[in-house]
């Protein structure tokens, strides 16, 4: 019997997906401010690279719905949907992406370096980099006898990094509570999975490390829910790690400004036609678990949360320039400060 | 070099100059081939392999998986076996996942084998910040690479040098790390430093690795730099010229071998030394250059030497913080004023 979400879980997933999409839409709009007609990454209220997650929301919510704040998530260079599904503080996250003093890290990190200890969330910019830390968090929980599992998100391109293979082996040898989740959007920048990966799908690589491997097709929120639920349960029960690869879609470019000339004709339109959010909305309406009014209310609340977060970010002050020099080390506490 | 440019001659960006050097050498040397991420159809994220796939095909222009440990290691093996691989590490910051192949194999096998193995390969990699890409996509790390013996390290400030250094690197029997600054590539989306886009002759030519250039002559102060720092220095020199200060700018072009002679000759003339380095302040290029003079003859210096470098902190994302840390012309002028206050009387 596959695991089924309750209505409350479905509505939670829907709300998070919509919040994430509205957030990315707002970021995309503001990112272009100051970058037209000449696109220069350094300009505008949000400078730097911007990797949007449009289309990949099911991977975030279908997994994170099974997690609570104490569980650990390591995310990638494309982290917004995962952060939102993990309940990272939306205002401070937006402010970090704008590089403001009120941001999660006071503007030191930026969009690829979001850290929220309250919900055990971190991400980073180098492909495959979160895998080791997820294994380590799981190890720490096991050694400390503390509850919680770790989820390492990666893209399919990262499954060709040495770190992937080392982390899977280590997690398996030590039977750690980790779930490795691959968001397979078929592209690593301009290089397709097909041309870069020796196996058609990465879940088979789990065999090499003696752990269960699952593949979810079609960006299917409910199927992700079921497969992730089982893997996380297994991890919580002390039965060790699992690997899940999810077929998903990157509706945006690799980063903003990507001309996407490498995509075959028609690919983008086909992906947009399969947008998982309207599909999930239809599913909820069809099952009668919520009506149009309720979904509209959810959408409105999501938009409001995003608007508030963006307004908070926009109106927050810049950091003090000289603050750049602080924070490299934890400052020594005055004597007796450790209670 | 830059001073010789005539206005109406063909100008290229560094990106196009690198691609031209690669394609010209690939035409005459079948051993040269290129590997890296997004270097095929996309032509490289920074445009430096544009047109190569179309001309030479996928056998010699290879898009790789995101597997730097494997393909940088593979380049070492191929080089030792008679090929002349060029590998691209998209951002120098990514060296962390493949440094073993770089500094323990590429850099050492010539020595370990007493020259019976050769490693003629080029590792090209992008450096630099200034566009808020955060602390894992903005570093220079010149000192990290230059510190470790066994690899030549070049870092051009303009397209003429880029083509000539690339051609020289491709003909070298030793490994060369070719560090190009993103802000100089001439890709509009990374901003455009006009001074980097200069005349580039269409015929192949070499710029000698290990030879500095005088980017501007002067008599009161020597500023030594590399890459984008040269442009900051030139701008500061112009500003100071208005105040009657004559600045000489030494563009190192290569960090390894380091043209210590050029540095000493210039400082012997000016008596004052400033180093501009976008890499971290401590244990790096700036200290090495000052030592080059101090060890030789500290009496050459009329004032304590100065450095304008990135402070010893990870590169912050927020624009105001990053700007605060990055060297620029204003910081150079300020450093000059401080230097004057400290001048021996
Ligand atoms: C070690 C390393 N190599 C290369 C890069 C540059 N890079 C950033 S994202 C990316 C593609 C990643 O593809 P994938 O893992 O499938 O994730 P996606 O971008 O599709 O979400 C590459 C090559 C990097 N950040 N780190």
UniProtKB/TrEMBL annotation, chain A:
Protein purpose: The pyruvate dehydrogenase complex catalyzes the overall conversion of pyruvate to acetyl-CoA and CO(2). It contains multiple copies of three enzymatic components: pyruvate dehydrogenase (E1), dihydrolipoamide acetyltransferase (E2) and lipoamide dehydrogenase (E3).
Cofactor needs: thiamine diphosphate
Single GO MF descriptor: pyruvate dehydrogenase (acetyl-transferring) activity
InterPro entries, A to Z: DH_E1, PDH_E1_Alpha_Subunit, THDP-binding
Keywords linked to the UniProt accession: Oxidoreductase, Thiamine pyrophosphate
Record-given protein name: Thiamine pyrophosphate-dependent dehydrogenase E1 component subunit alpha
Keyword Amino-acid biosynthesis: no
Catalytic function, reaction form: N(6)-[(R)-lipoyl]-L-lysyl-[protein] + pyruvate + H(+) = N(6)-[(R)-S(8)-acetyldihydrolipoyl]-L-lysyl-[protein] + CO2
GO BP: pyruvate decarboxylation to acetyl-CoA
Entry annotated with the keyword Acetylation: no
Species name: Aurantiacibacter zhengii
Domain Dehydrogenase E1 component intervals: 16-321
Listed PANTHER family: PYRUVATE DEHYDROGENASE E1 COMPONENT SUBUNIT ALPHA, PYRUVATE DEHYDROGENASE E1 COMPONENT, ALPHA SUBUNIT BACTERIAL AND ORGANELLAR
From TrEMBL, chain B:
Cofactor(s) needed by this chain: thiamine diphosphate
Record's keyword annotation contains Transmembrane helix: no
Organism: Aurantiacibacter zhengii
Protein name: Alpha-ketoacid dehydrogenase subunit beta
Positions of the Transketolase-like pyrimidine-binding domain: 12-187
Pfam families per UniProt: Transket_pyr, Transketolase_C
Domain of life from the UniProt record: Bacteria
InterPro entries found in the cross-reference section: THDP-binding, Transketo_C/PFOR_II, Transketolase-like_Pyr-bd, Transketolase_C
UniProt xrefs under SMART domains: Transket_pyr
């Amino acid at each position: 019997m596959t695991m089924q979400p309750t209505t409350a879980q479905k509505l939670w997933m829907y709300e998070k997906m919509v919040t994430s999409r509205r957030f990315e839409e707002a970021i995309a709009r503001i990112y272009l401010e100051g970058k037209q007609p000449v696109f220069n990454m350094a300009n505008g209220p949000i400078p730097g690279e911007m990797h949007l997650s449009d289309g990949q929301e099911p991977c975030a919510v279908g997994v994170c719905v099974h997690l609570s704040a104490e569980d650990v998530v390591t995310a990638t260079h494309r982290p917004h949907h995962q952060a939102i599904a993990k309940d990272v503080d939306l205002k401070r996250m937006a402010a970090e992406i704008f590089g403001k003093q009120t941001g999660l890290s006071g503007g030191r990190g930026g969009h690829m370096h979001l850290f929220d200890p309250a919900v055990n969330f971190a991400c980073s910019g180098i492909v495959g980099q979160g895998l080791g830390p997820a294994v380590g968090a799981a190890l720490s929980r096991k050694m400390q006898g503390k509850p919680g599992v770790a989820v390492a998100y990666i893209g399919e391109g990262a499954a060709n990094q040495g770190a992937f293979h080392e982390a899977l082996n280590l997690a398996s040898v030590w039977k750690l509570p980790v779930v490795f989740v691959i968001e397979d959007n078929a592209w690593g920048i301009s290089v397709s999975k097909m041309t870069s990966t020796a196996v058609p799908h990465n879940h088979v690589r789990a065999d090499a490390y003696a752990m269960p491997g699952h593949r979810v097709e079609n960006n299917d929120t409910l199927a992700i829910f079921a497969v992730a639920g089982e893997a996380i349960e297994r991890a919580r029960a002390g039965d060790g790690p699992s690997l899940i690869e999810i077929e998903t879609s990157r509706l945006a470019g690799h980063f903003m400004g990507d001309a996407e000339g490498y995509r075959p004709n028609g690919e983008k339109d086909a992906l947009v036609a399969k947008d998982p959010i309207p599909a999930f909305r239809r599913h909820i309406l069809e099952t009668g678990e919520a009506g149009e009014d309720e979904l509209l209310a959810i959408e409105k609340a999501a938009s409001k949360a995003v608007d508030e977060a963006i307004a908070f970010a926009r109106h927050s002050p810049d950091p003090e320039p000289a603050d750049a020099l602080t924070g490299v080390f934890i400052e020594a506490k005055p004597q007796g400060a450790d209670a | 070099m830059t001073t010789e440019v005539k206005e109406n001659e063909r100008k290229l960006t560094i990106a196009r100059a690198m691609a031209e050097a690669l394609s010209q050498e690939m035409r005459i040397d079948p051993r040269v081939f290129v590997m890296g991420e997004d270097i095929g159809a996309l032509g490289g994220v920074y445009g430096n392999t544009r047109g190569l796939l179309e001309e030479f095909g996928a056998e010699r222009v290879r898009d790789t998986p995101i597997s730097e440990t494997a393909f940088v290691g593979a380049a070492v093996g191929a080089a030792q076996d008679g090929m002349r691989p060029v590998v691209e590490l998209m951002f120098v910051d990514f060296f962390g996942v493949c440094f073993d192949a770089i500094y323990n194999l590429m850099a050492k096998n010539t020595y370990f084998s007493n020259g019976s193995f050769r490693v003629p390969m080029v590792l090209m990699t992008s450096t630099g910040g200034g566009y808020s890409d955060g602390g894992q996509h903005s570093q220079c790390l010149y000192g990290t690479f230059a510190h470790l013996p066994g690899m030549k390290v070049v870092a051009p400030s303009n397209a003429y040098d880029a083509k000539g250094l690339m051609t020289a690197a491709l003909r070298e029997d030793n490994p060369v790390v070719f560090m190009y600054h993103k802000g100089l590539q001439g890709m509009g989306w990374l901003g455009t430093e006009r001074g980097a886009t200069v005349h580039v002759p269409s015929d192949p030519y070499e710029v000698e690795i290990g030879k500095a250039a005088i980017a501007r002559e002067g008599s009161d102060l020597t500023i030594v730099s590399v890459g984008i720092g040269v442009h900051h220095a030139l701008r500061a020199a112009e500003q100071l010229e208005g105040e009657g200060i004559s600045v000489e700018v030494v563009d190192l072009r290569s960090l390894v071998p380091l043209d210590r002679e050029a540095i000493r000759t210039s400082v012997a003339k000016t008596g004052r030394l400033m180093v501009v380095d976008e890499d971290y302040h401590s244990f790096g290029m700036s200290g090495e250059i000052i030592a080059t003079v101090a060890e030789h003859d500290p009496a050459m210096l009329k004032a304590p030497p100065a450095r304008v470098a990135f402070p010893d902190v990870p590169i912050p994302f927020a624009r105001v913080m990053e700007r605060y840390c990055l060297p620029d012309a204003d910081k150079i002028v300020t450093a000059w004023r401080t230097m004057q206050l400290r001048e021996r009387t």
